[in-house]
Every structure is written in C-alpha cells, then in structure tokens.
Amino acid sequence: MLIFLETMFQMEMRQLIDLITALEDEVDLSKFSLKNYPQIVIYKITYYPFYLSVALAMYMFHIPQFYPSGTQTIEPYTLAKSIIISLGDCFQIQDDYLNLSGMPKQISIDIIDNKFSWCSEYCAGSVYARAAEGP
C-alpha cells in the first residue's frame, strides 16, 4: 500500500531532520527558531502515530480518495491530514512542555541532547528577536 511507503518516507525525513539540526557534539542555537518548528513537528509526530492510524482506518472502511459533492470535489484523506497536522502540533507542544517541567524522573533529555523542542525553539526565537531589536 502506498500509505506505508509514504509514512516510511516521512519517518526517514524526520530522522534526517533530527540528524542535520541536532548534532550531538555541537550546539548551534541559530538553528533553533519557531520558523523551522512546524516542519519538524509534521515529520516528527504527525505522520507515523497519528496520520497512519487514521488513514488506515479510512482505507479499511473503503473511504475513497476523493468524491464529488455538488460543485466541488471532497478529498477526505487531505482533509484528515490537515486536521491531524494541527492536532500533532498541539500534542508536541504539550509533550515538550511536560518534558521540560514534569516530574524530575520523567523529564526528557531532548534539550540536553540538542534536539528541537517547542520550549527551546520559543526561547531561542525570543532571544534572537530581542537581539535584532537592539538596545
């Protein structure tokens, strides 16, 4: 099925983004910006756990790729993907915040490992914006 190949490609893209932007032995805060964050979230969290599950359920229930409705064509998979991207974004922000401020035994080491998180992106974006404004 094409959905599995598409999801595997998205997972590879996620891994590539993680490797390119978060070198373990080099911290480059200039790579951290809210401009890059949406792409990272889409590839990191949206496709595999969320979209694949929904798309497979839609496929199992024989929902077509598209169908006419009056004067327009409805594309259920595209519509589902746009909704799931928003849900994935909300989920990732919540997860990143809880990783930063959760109970000590449960705190993730994403920031220590130089990985993108909403908290680090937001902080770095704020610092760079203030620096651009000047004194």
Ends distance: 57 Å
**Shape annotation:** elongated
* Number of DSSP E strands: 2
- Beta-strand percentage range: under 5%
Q: How many structural domains does the protein architecture include? A: 1
Radius of gyration: 18 Å
Given helix and strand content, the structural type is mainly alpha
Mean pLDDT: 78
The DSSP helix count reads 4
Biggest sheet layout: 2 strands, antiparallel
- Low-pLDDT runs of 5+ residues are none
The helicity comes to 55-70%
Order of helices and strands: HHEEHH
Describe this structure in words.
About 65% of the residues lie in helices and about 5% in strands. The chain is mainly alpha-helical. The protein has one domain (about 1-20, about 35-130). A two-stranded antiparallel ribbon has the order 1-2. Strand 1 (about 65-70) and strand 2 form a beta hairpin. The longest helix is centred in the middle third of the chain and has 26 residues, at about 75-100. The chain starts with a helix and ends with a helix. One of its GO terms (cellular component) is cytoplasm.
Compact overview of the structure:
With 135 residues, the chain is mostly helical.
Itemize the secondary structure elements and their pairings.
Elements: H1 2-21, H2 37-60, E1 67-69, E2 72-74, H3 76-101, H4 118-133
Antiparallel strand pairs: 1-2
Helix pairs in contact: 1-2, 2-3
Comma- or semicolon-separated keywords:
dimethylallyltranstransferase activity, magnesium, two-stranded antiparallel ribbon, 4 helices, elongated, mainly alpha, Polyprenyl_synt_CS, 4% strand, 135 residues, FPS1-like
